Amino acid sequence: MTTHVFDPDVVHACALRCLGKSKPEMFDAFADAMEEHYPGVLDRGQPWIYSIAGGAMIQMKLYYASLGEYIMIWGTPIGSEGHSGRHLCGFWDTVIDGETWYYGEGQFEKTVYRPGDRIYVGPGEVRGMNFTDGVWAVEYERGPLPTSIPFGLADVSFSCLDWLTAAQTVSLYADLVCQSLSRSFKEAPLGLGTPAAAVTGAVSSVARKLTWWLQPPRPSARIPRDNRPWRFGTSSAADARVHAAGDRADELHGEAARQQPFHHKGEHAIA
Questions:
Q1: What is the rounded CA–CA span in Å between residue 140 and residue 71?
Q2: Which of 64, 75, 104, 161 has fewest C-beta within 10 Å?
Q3: Domain boundaries, the chain
Q4: Are 173 and 72 in contact (CB under 8 A)?
Q5: Which CATH entry fits the domain spanning 8-160: 3.90.320.10, 1.20.950.20, 2.60.120.10, 2.30.42.10?
Q6: Entry pTM
Q7: Would you state the pLDDT for residue 191?
Q8: Could you tell me which of 100, 116, 112, 99 has the C-alpha nearest to residue 20?
Q9: Closest Cα partner for 232 from 250, 251, 247?
Q10: What DSSP assignment string belongs to the chain?
Q11: Contact (Cβ atoms closer than 8 angstroms) between residue 214 and residue 171
């Protein structure tokens, strides 16, 4: 019998701890609540990355992934819509901010989900989704997760041609799966646990470095006079190397205030 790490009802209860809080404090509130029930299981150090699948574009932060489960927070501040995919897995979602609309085949009125509401889409089921003006949700998946990878990579790879995000998705998932396997292998019999855990731990470390190396600079409000170079190598919190402060999102407001107007004869002022 398959043993699962997470209980969807517990995940939902932890998600409810987000309600009424601002972003990103609500995300930390969820992770803190999960830590109380599942100490040492979540990886809170992964970056936010895009996910484009089924025509819908969101961003996601994965906290845990194995061959049979994952925990993430996903969302968008501007809305999107698309196809949920028809998977062999089941998905439990709790809306923590905003609003989303779902409908199934033969359903002629949308189902509206708001903060605190739960959504379940089971194996073989599919929904049309609209994320209105923006929505954020906690998601728990259970089932043969590798079978959903083609759905998760098809749009981003062959429609958007965003191979950087596709590579990040694979490296991040590989990192988390190897973390999960490493914990499992430590309990293996016949002395195999230690070397197996060491191998998966090494793969996890390499995958993590690749994920962060592929992470692009944060958006900048500064309008350059020429193209900025395409740079790689954004650092993790544990890494000493970081991009210049002008490329950090927390500098956007201050950077915009420091811009000096440039007047070109016969044109409006530009920054």
A1: 5
A2: 161
A3: 8-160
A4: no
A5: 2.60.120.10
A6: 0.84
A7: 64
A8: 116
A9: 247
A10: -PPPS--HHHHHHHHGGGTTPPTTHHHHHHHHHHHHHSTTT--TTPPPEEEEETTEEEEEEEEEE-SSEEEEEEEESS--EEE----SSEEEEEEEEE-EEEE-TT--SPEEE-TT-EEEE-TT---EEE-TT-EEEEEEEES-GGGGHHHHHHIIIIIS--HHHHHHHHHHHHHHHHHHHHHHHTT-TTTTHHHHHHHHHHHHHHHHHHHHHHPPPPP-----SSPPP----PPPTT-S----GGGSGGGHHHHHHHPPPB--TTS--B-
A11: yes
Q: Provide the token pair at 14.
A: 């932890």
Cis peptide upstream of residue 24 (ω within 30 degrees of 0): yes
Residue type, 18: C
User: What tens-digit pLDDT sequence spans the chain (271 residues)?
Assistant: 568 999 999 999 999 999 999 999 999 999 999 999 999 999 999 999 999 999 999 999 999 999 999 999 999 999 999 999 999 999 999 999 999 999 999 999 999 999 999 999 999 999 999 999 999 999 999 999 999 999 999 999 999 999 999 999 999 999 999 999 988 887 766 666 678 888 999 999 999 999 999 998 888 889 999 998 888 776 554 543 333 333 334 433 444 444 444 444 444 434 3
218 token code pair: 């944060």
Contacts of 136 (CB under 8 A, 6+ apart): 23, 26, 73, 74, 75, 95, 96, 97, 98
